[in-house]
Amino acid sequence: MNPCYEDHDLRGKGVSSQETISVVIPALDVGEALRPTLDSVKGCVDDLVVSDGRSSDHTAAYAKQSGARVVVGDCGRGQQLRRGGEIATGDWLLFLHADTVLEAGWIEEARQFMAVAPDKAAAFRFALDDPSLWARMIETGVALRCRLFGLPYGDQGLLISRTLYDSIGGFKPIPLFEDVDIMRRLGRRRVRILNHMAKTSSVRYQRGGFLRRPLKNLMLLLFFYLGVAPEKLARLYK
User: Fold this and answer.
1) Positive/negative CA dihedral, 166, 172, 173, 176
2) For residues 158 and 110, is the Cβ–Cβ distance under 8 A?
3) Is the pTM of this model over 0.90?
4) Which member of 55, 157, 176, 191 lies 3.0 to 4.6 Å from 59 by CB, making a disulfide possible if both were Cys?
5) Average pLDDT of each block of 10 consecutive residues along the chain (238 residues)?
């Protein structure tokens, strides 16, 4: 079964948008770990771009073998997202992290959104690939943040029309909080959270601590809102 669809018989039903979609994935030294992400979108979209940050492994070669177009340049998620967006050809752009896998059936909901909300952007519901209670607590916290502040992060994906993306200036080439920056320019009234999940790797939480990592991210976010340069915050993020 095509992982883009929950049921082959549902393809196209209730979906009126026929505009093209480009997926842009920034990647760095992920190699074949990119496979689940690519598999969750291949066959659903018209254009697949991997923006590689000069990986030292076979990431770029693997992406090409998988059918993606590859653009290579300096690393840094903001730079890579912007670079990928520049060569993407779709009427709509879907920016997706290399360790994020979209839930089957996402394309149907995405196209329904595209058909009725061309002046808005969308993100997916956040989930972690970890069975622990800590992971469920983090997911609940993210859902609350999105509901109260309209602030999804990049690991929830970003679906946005090319017209809207260009009108707000696209992603800025900054090393951290490029996702928060573009959401601030969009404004909460122009951002919707879709029902389908974007399931993200929990490795960074396992390494950094399920409690310590979110607290550190919150502290850095506060500094960002207070005007501290993203370049300085990126050094603290690692």
Assistant:
1) negative
2) no
3) yes
4) 55
5) 58 60 98 96 96 96 96 96 98 98 98 96 98 96 95 97 98 96 96 98 91 92 95 87
